[in-house]
Design brief:
The protein is α+β, with helices and mostly antiparallel strands. Among the domains are: 106 residues, Immunoglobulin-like, CATH 2.60.40.10; 55 residues, no CATH class. The protein contains 4 helices and 16 strands. β11 and β12 form a beta hairpin. α1 packs across α2. The termini are far apart. The relative contact order is 0.13.
Length: 251
């Protein structure tokens, strides 16, 4: 919600002075303003620190990470001189079929800039529950002007195929404390196989042309557009089992 120009009706007007609006047109100036406030409070911070602070102090709005990201920026918490985390998001990448048994491990470090120790309660949430990351500790005491780390271990194959995302929260035991949030997520690929396509021109040189990929025994596969181009004579496709026709025209 923000100021409404006199005589306008953009968004959903609240009253004669304010209107609410969903989308990047409204979100961008708000996020930019909060980023400026955080940068003003911490002029020595780099961009990665500013980003982590904006994400980790955002307020969830009741939807999943894939729908709303970390949530809505919170200027009060973002500029508060309290505990910070070094990562607002953990990108756990893609787990390729056939899902080898290999856990992904990351580390989160919490910094306490105050003059008194702070105790944090940690929790991880995701649906389905079997995909929940394992934390090396559920309680951390961050010393005054010090750092403490926790290890996050994820079995990306535990819940099968698909896109998964959730939140790790660290909440100070003081009454009314807002959580520090780190989002996480990964993609577990369904059954796919690698097909390598090579193209050679009539002069024996590598081709750099577009491919046409068609499946003759089922629905067309979901292949990224950039993979349907020969790059220096070759490209690699990940496709489900089936029968395909691959064609191209080049001189």
């Amino acid at each position: 919600m923000s100021a409404r120009a006199a005589g306008t009706d953009l968004g959903d007007p609240v009253d004669e002075n304010y209107t609410s609006l969903t989308g990047t047109s409204m979100a961008t100036p708000h996020v930019t303003g909060v980023a400026a406030l955080v940068a003003q409070a911490h002029p020595d911070w780099k961009a990665v620190q500013l980003k982590a602070r904006l994400i980790s102090t955002a307020d969830a709005q009741g939807a999943g990470v894939t729908e709303e990201g970390a949530g809505r920026v919170d200027a009060d918490q973002a500029t508060a001189p309290d505990v910070t985390v070094d990562a607002g998001e953990l990108e756990l990448g893609m787990l390729a079929w056939p899902h080898p048994a290999k856990d992904e491990t990351r580390k989160l470090t919490y910094h306490n800039p105050t003059t008194a120790p702070v105790t944090l309660k940690l929790a991880a949430s995701i649906s389905p529950a079997e995909a929940t990351p394992k934390l090396s500790a559920t309680t951390l005491t961050v010393p005054a002007n010090g750092d403490v780390s926790v290890t996050v271990t994820v079995d990306r194959a535990a819940a099968g195929n698909g896109t998964f995302s959730g939140r790790i929260t660290a909440t100070a035991t003081a009454a009314g404390a807002d959580p520090i949030v780190t989002t996480f997520g990964w993609y577990a690929e369904p059954e796919r196989y690698t097909v390598t396509v090579e193209g050679i021109t009539k002069d024996g040189l590598p081709s750099n042309d577009e491919l046409n990929l068609a499946r003759v025994d089922g629905p067309p596969p979901d292949v990224p557009a950039e993979n349907l181009f020969l790059n220096n004579g070759t490209t690699t496709l990940r496709v489900p089992p089936g029968r395909y026709v691959v064609t191209s025209a080049f001189q």
